[in-house]
C-alpha cells in the first residue's frame, strides 16, 4: 500500500481485538484497516481505506444480517482467520431418548454392547470464499464444510468410540439483495447451492445423499427468517443390499423432508432459534430443534439445544430421536 507507513501498523496492531459477534464499531473499523494493510489492494490510498472502513463500521444503520456479513467481510482476506459457516459448538453432555434397536446399535465396531443414552455431540462448520466480484461485494461464491459428530464419551464398555460422524461439503452462491429488489423485510438475501452429505461408512452402514437447494433469508424488526427448500438428486437403485453402488437410503426424503424453515432472534446477549423440517405428508415426519445461546466468559457462550424428530444423524435418519444437550458455543448465527 503506497501511502501507509509501516509505523502505522506497529502503532495500531495491539489495538486490533475482534471478538466474534461482540465487536464494537471502533473495533470493526480497526480490524478493517488491519486487514486492508495485510491483504488488501496494494494500490489503494489511505483515503480509500479510511472511507471503506468507516462505511463498514457504521453499525447503527445495520441490520443483524448486515452485522454478521460485515464481520465476515473484514476478515475475508486474512489468511489467519477461518470464517464460520453454521454454528460451531461442543455439547459435552447430551441425553437422547430413542429406539434401542437402531442401525447404529448394530454397528460391528460396537461389539454388541448397548449404546449409552448419554453422549457428547459437536459441530464444526466453516466456509471459504471462492470468488467475489469487487464491484459488487454483496455477491460471492463459497465453499462450505460442516462436520457433525456423535461421541459415546461415557461408554467405557466399548472404549468410548465415535458412534457417527456426518460430513457435509457444499458449494453455493450468495447474494444480498438491493433495497429495490427486496420483496419484504428490512434485509433480504438468497443462496443457491449444491451439497453432499454422507457418513463415510461402508456397506451396510453407508448413508449419503446429494441435493440442490435455494435458501431465502430475510429480516424484519430484528427477527431473522430462513426458508430452505431442496431437491434431492436421484440415484440408481441397488442391485442387491451388498452392492456398494446405488442408493444407500432411497427413502431419506420421507424423513428429512423437503424444506427447512428457521427463525433467529437476538435479545441483548441472548440468541434464540427454532428450526422446523417436514415431509408435507399425512404422517407429518420431520423435526424441530430449539437453540438458546447466552453469555459465558470471554468470547465463549453457553449453549443449550433440544432436538425432536427424524434425521438428526444419517445413520439413524429413519429413527425418531429426542435429545437435550448443554455445552459451549464458539460461533453463533447473528
Give an overview of the whole structure.
The chain is mainly β and 334 residues long. It has 2 domains: 6-73, no CATH class; 83-331, Outer membrane phospholipase (ompla), Chain C (Beta Barrel), CATH 2.40.230.10. The chain contains 5 helices and 13 strands. It has helices spanning 6-12, 25-39, 46-56, 64-73, 252-256, and strands at residues 83-84, 88-97, 118-132, 139-151, 162-176, 187-198, 208-220, 223-232, 259-267, 270-278, 286-297, 300-309, 321-331. It has a 12-stranded antiparallel β-barrel with strand order 2-3-4-5-6-7-8-9-10-11-12-13. Helix 2 (25-39) runs antiparallel to helix 3 (46-56). The radius of gyration is 22 Å and the shape is globular.
Q: Could you list some keywords that capture this structure?
A:
single chain, 334 residues, mainly beta, Outer membrane phospholipase (ompla), Chain C, 2 domains, 5 helices, 14% helix, globular, disordered N terminus
Element pattern in H and E: HHHHEEEEEEEEHEEEEE
Computed Rg: 22 Å
The number of helices is 5
CATH class of the largest domain: Mainly Beta
CATH homologous superfamily identity of the largest domain: Phospholipase A1
Measured by DSSP, the beta-strand proportion falls in 35-45%
Could you give a short account of the major beta sheet?
Answer: 12 strands, antiparallel, barrel
Classify the fold: give the CATH topology of the largest domain.
Outer membrane phospholipase (ompla), Chain C
Number of discrete domains: 2
Q: Can you give the helix content as a percent range?
A: 10-25%
Question: What is the total tally of β strands?
Answer: 13
| Average pLDDT level | 83
Could you give the distance between the termini?
33 Å
Spatial ordering of strands, largest sheet: 2-3-4-5-6-7-8-9-10-11-12-13
Q: Judging by the overall fold, what is the CATH architecture of the largest domain?
A: Beta Barrel
Which class best fits the helix and strand makeup? mainly beta
* Net shape: globular
Low-confidence stretches: 1-22
